[in-house]
Amino acid sequence: MDKRDRLTRAKRWEQADEDITYSATELDRDVVNPSQIRTVIKAFKRGIETEIFPQRKEVPKTLIFAKTDSHADDIINTVREEYGEGNDFCKKITYRTEEDPKGLLARFRNDYHPRIAVTVDMIATGTDVKPLECLLFMRDVKSSNYFEQMKGRGTRTLDADSLKKVSPSATTNKTHFVLVDAVGVTKSCKTDSRPLERKPGVSLKDLMMQVVMGLRDDDTLTALANRLTRMEKQIDPKEKAEFKNKAGGRSIQEVVGALLNAHDPDAVASTHGVDLPKAATTVFDDPAFRDYVDNVRKKYEQVIDTSNLDQVTFAGFGSAAKEEAQKTVEQFRAFLAAQRDELTALRIYYSQPYRRKELTFQMVQQVAEVLAQPPYAMSIVRIWDAYERLSVVGSPAVAHAGAQGSAGQPNQQPTTKKPSPLHQLTDLVSLIRYELKVDDALRPYAETVKKNFQEWVFRKQAGHIKFTEAQMAWLHLLRDHIATSVHVDRDDLELGSMGQQGGLARMHQLLEMTWTGCWMS
């Protein structure tokens, strides 16, 4: 049998080991049957010439609705072969066409050629082609609204003179159009799109509480499903995984599907008396799950206040900024105290300091993610700015470089630069170490690593060890990796810049140091 690539349409022959059975939904998607397309086009051609428009010398302007772009190409090739009128006779008008789609559409509307246009969705709605007299459906449509819009392409009226400009053998005004149904589109069941937002004035938190209290009517469950669907489009994969974990293994789509099917008559009939609304909402009985959903939603939502108008109450240097900075620092300290037993990184710093060398980038990232969520909603840059405003950033010797004078005027800017976005996560380590009195001064983490590295090299070279240029280059790679990733393990030596320089084997060759020895150093 023949097989064809979907994109390139390149064909190859392959021996079939068994018979292939395919359904109507797979036709023209996974399986192409050229005979079926040709049969439809032949019947259409014969019907136009003998029954529908027997007096016409040319084919009336016709629009064919195809399933896919590939299906449209198959239809066009068949139409051109059956009519033998050249390429201009039949054109594809879709967003993927190589020719200018707007120019093609204008020619289809105003010129003699093309007589037949094949589209997928570009001119299914919202486009006027008044000379259209035939609509050939070679695809099914499930939405009643969409189907009506597609039929609307043929309902435009046109006077005789205008119609003759594109169809010279027409003798009257355009009085009707013909719909040719090749796939049963007029008989298939159609559905009306229903608005999912039934309670726009009720918050997500209140909707969840309503279902917990037993209010499980269709409007409430549909509105709740809508809110979760919108949230699913916003949150990141890690938050989706956390949702699934807290929902007992059910993804957002599964929870939404259960809510929408809770009052579906067919679903109710097939479950033999099961209380679907109750089953769909049991996940919301867990207060921790409701809090998580509400907090995640708040991260992606803003409140627009148009009622309270601001006025300038003070302009100039004052103590308010310093008080706000102090408040931010206190909030950060409260966060550390509240999460000391919950987050691995904080637990290590508080109660297991001997394990600090085991701290990983993922542990620090977990702290940053919890810090960014309500009720804290604090960024590392905001916390760092607060410490800088309180003049504690930098070494003790320059700790007060940004302090204000007695008149409220700033003396000078702090000498230490703000943390760059690349280092914000690692700079969180510096903030934690400073608050827990591990370090006596607050510096960007990269600076601390470089300082400790410099002291370590001086101590080593003060003895009998003298590092060569190649050895120092490798040690610099280790230093820079730790500065941006907090921790180094065996895999890090085999990947990235260190892997490109030879990895663990090269380190052992240069430094005569095993992995255990490197890790301990």
Explain this structure:
Helix 3 links the parallel strand 4 and strand 5. The chain is elongated, with a radius of gyration of 35 Å. The protein is mainly α and 521 residues long. The strands form 2 sheets. The chain has a 5-stranded parallel beta sheet with strand order 4-5-3-6-7, covered by helices on one side. A two-stranded antiparallel ribbon has the order 1-2. Helix 13 (320-338) crosses helix 16 and helix 16 packs across helix 17 (424-435). Helix content is 48%, strand content 5%. The model is unreliable at 395-417 and 514-520 (pLDDT under 50).
Per-chain topology:
Elements: E1 2-4, E2 11-13, H1 34-52, E3 62-65, H2 69-83, E4 90-92, H3 101-110, E5 116-119, E6 134-137, H4 144-151, H5 160-166, E7 178-181, H6 204-212, H7 218-232, H8 237-246, H9 252-261, H10 265-270, H11 276-281, H12 287-299, H13 320-338, H14 344-351, H15 361-372, H16 380-389, H17 424-435, H18 445-461, H19 469-485, H20 490-494, H21 496-500, H22 503-511, H23 515-520
Parallel strand pairs: 3-5, 3-6, 4-5, 6-7
Antiparallel strand pairs: 1-2
Helix pairs in contact: 1-2, 6-7, 6-12, 7-9, 13-16, 15-17, 16-17, 18-19
